[in-house]
Amino acid sequence: MKEIQLKYGCNPNQKPSRIFMENGADLPVEVINGRPGYINFLDAFNGWQLVKELKEATGLPAATSFKHVSPAGAAVGLPLDDTLAKIYWVDDLGELSPLACAYARARGADRMSSFGDFIALSDVCDADTAKLIKREVSDGVIAPGYTDEALEILRQKKKGNYNVIKIDPSYVPEELERKQVYGITFEQGRNELDINGDLFGNIVTANKEIPEEALIDMKIAMITLKYTQSNSVCYVKGGQAIGIGAGQQSRIHCTRLAGQKADNWFLRQSPQVMGLQFLDELGRADRDNAIDVYMGDEYEDVLRDGEWQKRFKVKPEVFTREEKKEWLAKNQNVTLGSDAFFPFSDNIERAYKSGVKYIAQPGGSVRDDLVIECADKYDMVMAFTGIRLFHH
């Protein structure tokens, strides 16, 4: 197929709209089901690049959950423990395939942001993954293929209109990429940076020990940032992004935003949240909303009389600031990646509060010495990659 006509562009008033190959070649994608839109394809193609590189860098199946041209979550297919299975709402599905575990992790890290996502999978979509996707609010999925059973499951979603895209995994894009802004064409070489272990060899802190698990997390962080709108910061633990901050003008604001998401991910595993007794009829999305409010400063919105009865069988106790601080102190060995250098040590101070032990960033700030000094204060390991990863 040479081109695909789209319903409209970013907004309904932006017509006509299509995707096509400027060189006249066939598109490397096939729409198997549904009718993907302009933003769907932007998410699909960015997401596909991310999971393709994650698979190449780690050797593990990978998945990402995209929203508005940035990942809400990204992960590789490591097994889920009982706690993660429960907070991701998949504990009723039994043992999952590695690919399904990858998507459960990618979706579960920030379920509020992943609501209505577009999914990218590194491997052929299997039935386990399709079953997980079917029960979530999602716009579509892109993968190199689908088993017959998986495709049958996905075609039942959205009254038969769920967007399913198949991409040719052997497709290699041209070395130059172009886009237009205000009728003016921009051209640049594609970002073909190979993110591997060698990128993290320049360790600038006194502590220079990076275990294999942390090295994998560094790869995940930097590959995720490669396809996240800048400024961007990514917290990773145990093979998955747990907090992604995208598109912030200030880096410290980005670090705080991503850090709060990482904190929320860990707070969901606390006894206070795990013990919430929801009404049986309350759906997963409503439970996610209730948990998000319960963990935050506006907790009274779900605990006041007349409100808690709409969500819970038993009124929960307030999750106090002291209790949250005590629980968060248990989160350790988190990895942090940044798409550009940290200009001030306040980013390191904030990262430490979310359990960060390992840091990967380009370096190159005039205050690098103060940033390194702050990392040394907390016995962190920090690698300077020397490479910026801005994405716009």
Plain-language structure description:
The protein is an alpha/beta fold and 392 residues long. The protein has 3 domains: 3-172, 3-Layer(aba) Sandwich (Cytidine Deaminase, domain 2); 193-267 and 328-384, Cytidine Deaminase, domain 2 (3-Layer(aba) Sandwich); 276-318, Helix Hairpins. The protein is built from 14 helices and 15 strands. It has helices at residues 38-58, 82-87, 98-108, 111-114, 127-134, 148-154, 212-226, 251-267, 271-274, 284-295, 300-303, 321-328, 346-353, 368-377; strands at 3-6, 17-20, 29-33, 62-67, 70-76, 117-121, 138-143, 163-167, 176-181, 184-189, 232-237, 240-246, 334-338, 356-361, 381-384. Helix 13 links the parallel strand 13 and strand 14.
